[in-house]
Amino acid sequence: MISTYGMLGFLKMFYFYLRTKLFFRKARLVRFPIDIRNKRNIDFGENLTTGVGCRIECFPNKVTSAKLLKFGKNVQINDYVHITAANSVEIGNNVLMASKIYISDCTHGSYIGDTNDSDPMTVPIERPISVKSIKIDDNVWLGEFVSVLPGVTIGKGTIVGANSVVSKSLPPYVIAVGSPAKPIKCYNFDTQKWEKYVN
Asked: Do residue 18 and residue 68 come from a single domain?
């Protein structure tokens, strides 16, 4: 570890490890600083690893002790990841997230073309919160700067490329890129190769 991080980096990691075991006993390693809001509504799972500067928060509509944000086992998130849950965000086992990722199950207002649409003349912060659950399944890998928006499911084993915006659900075992993110490859279990995605 000293060869990887250097002596100062090693001492910093040791300090982070001690703080992790004091405040997040089931986690593997939490790098500080970290911003956590409404900790009682978060299930940190087992063996969670975080980068620095992460913001992990829950904003329930009413007082509750329910876990609105749930991490599975062996989740790894890198620096400056921001995750918000107002209703339900579930992150499966062995999920890997690069840095600067945004995941939120809520927005200020509704803009889907129904009778509850938010008036753009109202102040954004005063618009009613709109919520839709998010589920990120096992073995998903999210690249740098990915955004995951309300109401989506990302299927098992799927990879989302850097700078992509996931605004619609993605099937399992695909590689998806773009804004909005769309599958470009899928894994063929017969040939054991990634092949062009055909919808």
From this structure: no
